[in-house]
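Why does this matter for the project? Reviewers at the last site visit asked to see concrete outputs rather than summary tables. In response, this paragraph embeds two records directly. Each consists of the residue sequence and, immediately after it, the corresponding structure tokens. Nothing has been edited or filtered.
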Amino acid sequence: MDESTKKIAVVTGAGSGIGRSVALTLAAAGWAVAVAGRRTEPLQETAAAAGKAADVLCVRADVGDPDDVTALFESVRARYGRLDLLFNNAGTFGPGGVPLEDLTYEAWRSVVDVNLTGAFLCAQAAFRQMKRQDPQGGRIINNGSISAHVPRPNSIAYTATKHAMTGLTKSLSLDGRPYRIACGQIDIGNAATDMTERMQTGILQANGQLAVEPVMDAADVARTVLHMAELPLEANVQFATVMATSMPYIGRG
């Protein structure tokens, strides 16, 4: 690909799961990808999986730390000079199976810091870069969740932050409109990652029972993100839901 036409992406939480799958899919499609995460080794594994021909920049960053986020986007600007896509993916579920009344402040705050504050900080940094670059504009895709629509039992911190992600998406879409900055959200249900391993052994349902839930390949999510990313800026997928077909989401539970 001509270096002058290469698209530049930042993918957070790229050391595993959906983030890694999206980073690899973008790289295979010819994008230059800056992969960010809290641990360097998994990022290097992602870069190695992309192959020697891929243009992958590894940047250790905690998205909940404003200084780390600033350094991440400065590194991207220094290497590439512009930014075309942010996939705001980094997230944490927090302690699983903890009843609401027993959730500690520290646990609540840790989920909010990553899922909401981290998403905001990265979106803000990307917005600034996209607004000032020439040509102006770019795209932000936020990773929501099925939990942006309906909760699981004992998931108040995760669910609240994913609902907040929807507000973040809508505000970014509106505020970015004058600057050719498009923002969409992908809500994902039961992609096969480390976070969803328990779904294959039995997870608590709304009726109090444990049940095994179907999962889908994370590569199916990544192809959807690629489609959203490669649309012209005059078009935008505002919200997309990609889920394992038979998961217990549609219907009464």
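We now turn to the second protein, recorded in exactly the same manner.
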Amino acid sequence: MWFYAAAIPTAIALAVVKTLVLVVGGVITFFAYKAYRRTRQPALGYLSLGFGLVTLGLVFAGMLYEYLGMDLMTGILLESLLVLAGFLVIAYSLYVT
């Protein structure tokens, strides 16, 4: 129920959500890459690369902060740059014929 969510510490909730993002993003990336290998369509290759970058970017800041002791703002900047690069690659994959 929704009122139990307030009892969960934010850090644990964030770790769970980031883990789910990593798993779901990894599955999407895997299937896109699998489709690329089957068809050899360049657009699917770019699509899988883009989803991989977005997925990596969405979990990058926390990893840099927790494991490498990097400043959180620097980690968020690098995360945002990876997500931006991923979205640009995805947009390009939709443009490639």
